[in-house]
Amino acid sequence: MKQITTPLQPSTRRTIRTVFQALDYGALAPIYCEEGGDAFWQAHRGPCERIGVNLGRVLKEYLSLGGRSLYVGAGIAELPIIIMEMKELGRHISAHNLRQQEVEVIHRACPDLTQCLKTTDARSALGAFDHIWMVSVLNDPERFPEVSALSYGRANPATFDPKRFSGERTMVQTTTKRCLNKLTKPGLVTTSVEEIPWITQWCEDQAISYRIGEQDYPTAIVGDPICFIEIG
User: Domains along the chain?
Assistant: First the structure.
């Protein structure tokens, strides 16, 4: 697997730094943390930028110039990666975030993202993509509490609701299918380690080959390690 990376260009680093300096962390505080949001961003702002830059360096080795990326969920943590794709690889970005307030904060800090970052459902994105970013979406504890509990090994056998899990599983499978159906082959999926089974099951159902990267990488906010899956 590719492990040798090159630094991001100085102009890209400056853009990322400028965006993180311009973000309204006061407005972001209640989105990410109901209480103590200011302290949350004091602790996470620096790591979020640094880890994002490192992920951008790694991802750059996998992506081609001028391709298309679909981000199924894109917030503050994804900004360095998106900026790298746009500035260094000239790629088209279709990024989706249903939290309108967060999107508005990002647009004010980085007007260049106004056209590519939308408050729409990624499943409705048009066209084909050679890269899909789907990190901590299929195991979101707010949207899929039973799936999340099982994914992270937190399921309580005394209270686990199999009927609710069955409904959530259907929704996760539908989301996976509708997004991955947009992936060209060969293509790349960036996802969390906990979400691998959903991706690989889709591949096996479609009789499509896949290769899971041997190395995983930390994330700054959610904490889920991510990996790269080469498909087709």
Answer: 10-231 (3.40.50.150)
